[in-house]
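::Encoded backbone::
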Amino acid sequence: MYAILTPDSELRKVIETGTQAASNLCWACGTCDNECPINLASNRLSPRKIVRMASMGLLDELLSIPEIWYCLTCQRCLDVCPNGVKPAEVIRFIREESLRRQIVKWETLQDYEKLFGRFQRVRWHATVRCIQGELDAVTDDQWYAWLDTPVELPGTKITPKASADRTVYFRQMADSNITLCLTCSECTNCCPVFHERSVFDPQATIRMVNLGLTEELLHSPSIWLCIDCGRCSKACTQTVKARELIGRLRQMAIDGGYVSPRLPYQLKKAEKLLYPRLLDEIDACFGFSSGRILLSDIA
């Protein structure tokens, strides 16, 4: 049964004023949907749908759908839109409006953020399994064990090897600028998947390369947790390119035989197992029912 939706021009102005997202420029091409990592893995988050709802002034409906909490805030939808529409800004505004109206309690938001942090542990453990072989399924016991099992930092003493060949290679690469890193943590603070340094931290990756610890990184599952959104590179005032650095580390790991060339494919396959379960956990966290507004209802 189709939902009955009534456009509201006044609320459309409210949303646009609060977001500056240029929702009216959307021509529904679907480029954002094809770039969204959550949508690619689960088919349950459509930035295009959210923008269409915003352009129709459907504020109350946006406040009621679970999709606004599925977003990773990677902002890849912003980068690819040919018209400069900003779906992530609409999502940010609706989340803030949910808090302002007390539709979502502060305690619930804290639980949600903790869930995202624990989910990165799941991704780390799943990556280890993919490196070791195939990950064809995730049982309930595995899922909750991985959520609750912190990743321990190595307890060994670190000895800098600044003259190592690979460190010299990275320092000479003009597209990474790693020697300019001030360890200010801008990259870490904007990274959508950073929650625990032992799991993934772009700043720690840069520091390890600068200290000559490339070998340790090539053995680490952490370099495969980057979602390639580039927010770290855009945020860095020193023009350090953490995304490009991590991309080169990954290629070195494949070329050097540290991981199988099939690993990127295996990780994409694992995402289709993990992200839907994350979204189910988010639904439970916010108490959402299974009823959803479909894109066909507003197209």
Observations:
- Residues 112 and 282 are 7 Å apart (CA to CA).
- The radius of gyration is 21 Å.
- Residues 1-150+262-299 form one domain.
